[in-house]
Design brief:
Blueprint lengths: L1 E10 L5 E10 L4 E3 L10 E9 L10 H12 L13 H4 L3 E4 L2 E4 L3 H9 L7 E5 L14 E2 L9 E2 L4 E3 L4 E2 L3 E3 L3 E3 L2 E2 L4 E2 L3 E3 L4 E2 L12 E2 L4 E2 L4 E2 L8 E2 L4 E2 L4 E5 L6 E5 L9 E5 L6 E5 L15
Parallel strand pairs: 8-10, 9-12, 10-13, 11-14, 12-15, 13-16, 15-18, 16-19, 17-20, 19-21, 20-22, 21-25, 23-26
Antiparallel strand pairs: 1-2, 1-4, 2-3, 5-6, 5-7, 23-24, 25-26
Length: about 300
């Protein structure tokens, strides 16, 4: 695959690149092609990138490559976990994201002061290395109730609905229609027709020493305030309030004998057709065959 991209970079007063918006991205398979206007602002410049496929496997070395890779993800040119993002945090500057665009963190004090004593029209939304996705990419047939909770680099498939408390990190997202009311951490992917319940969470790979990529299959339900540190196969349900870490001791029911075998959760990571719940009397975590199929409300995911 050959890739060509043209972007518009915003710069700080000292000339450092803050962010890059790519209106033109072209590969053999897909393309985005908006007109690039003539740049007259001295705080902007046009940048051009040409890569071959192998360069997607190179680490991130600067803001230009960082923003291109993040926009490749959010524009769905590439899948989560399919390109090298090593070095991303070091390459991205910390930025004050405002209604007037990005401003370098070390320049915001004076600009904010001037705003307060003049028009008082500067609004700072966040102070972070990552902007929200919708400042750069508007995914088709997707609803996002609070755009600040979806970072650039998120991958959202058509039919996805992200409710107000839902959060989707970069290099993570949905592979089909999904209801997101909880947290999809970096590196986590969610399959078609799955529901991530309110207050629920998925264990990512950015901190805490977890190196295993977590995934959720199709037709799954992660209950409200539940969490997982293992992968779920297809047709799985985790009851509300139950957090499964890799070392959680689980009483796994044999479908034939109806007897239970004690296993660690990591041993059944990725298995399909399981219902995880906690016995309300003994407190034991159980796993049984899941006889119910999770179904999304089709009206909530018709996002035309």
């Amino acid at each position: 695959m050959k890739l060509k991209a043209i972007g518009i970079a915003n710069k700080s007063q000292s000339g450092k690149i803050l962010d890059v918006y790519f209106p033109i991205i072209e590969t053999e398979m897909m393309s985005i092609n908006f007109q690039v206007p003539e740049i007259t602002n001295h705080l902007q410049e046009v940048v051009e990138v040409e890569w071959i496929k192998s360069e997607l496997n190179d680490g991130v070395s600067d803001p230009i490559s960082a923003y291109l890779k993040l926009q490749l993800l959010s524009n769905k040119f590439v899948l989560p976990n399919s390109i090298n993002l090593n070095g991303l945090f070091n390459a991205l500057p910390n930025i004050a994201w405002t209604n007037n665009g990005p401003i370098a963190a070390d320049e915001i004090d004076e600009i904010l002061h001037n705003s307060k004593i003049t028009k008082n029209n500067l609004h700072i939304r966040s102070l972070d290395k990552f902007p929200c996705m919708t400042d750069y990419v508007i995914p088709k047939n997707v609803r996002i109730a609070d755009a600040t909770r979806v970072r650039l680099g998120a991958y959202l498939s058509e039919g996805t609905t992200v409710m107000h408390e839902g959060f989707v990190n970069f290099n993570a997202g949905t592979l089909g229609k999904a209801m997101i009311e909880g947290r999809i951490s970096s590196g986590v992917v969610v399959g078609n027709n799955s529901d991530i319940g309110g207050g629920s969470s998925t264990m990512g790979t950015l901190s805490g020493g977890n190196e295993t990529k977590i995934s959720i299959g199709e037709n799954c339900l992660l209950g409200a305030n539940a969490g997982i540190g293992i992968s779920l196969g297809d047709n799985c349900t985790v009851e509300a309030g139950l957090y499964l870490t890799a070392g959680t001791k689980i009483h796994l029911m044999d479908q034939n004998s109806k007897k239970f075998e004690i296993v660690k959760a990591r041993e059944i990571s990725g298995k399909s057709n399981l219902l995880f719940l906690r016995d309300s009397l003994s407190g034991k975590v159980l796993a049984k065959r899941n006889s119910k199929k999770s179904l999304l409300n089709t009206e909530l995911h018709n996002n035309d």
